[in-house]
Amino acid sequence: KIAKKTGVTVVPIYLHNVHRAFEGNFHILGHPHITVSVLDPIDTTNMSRSDVSSLNEQVYESILNYSHCSH
Question: I need a surface site. Which of 14, 27, 28, 60 has the fewest CB within 10 A?
Answer without folding.
Answer: 27
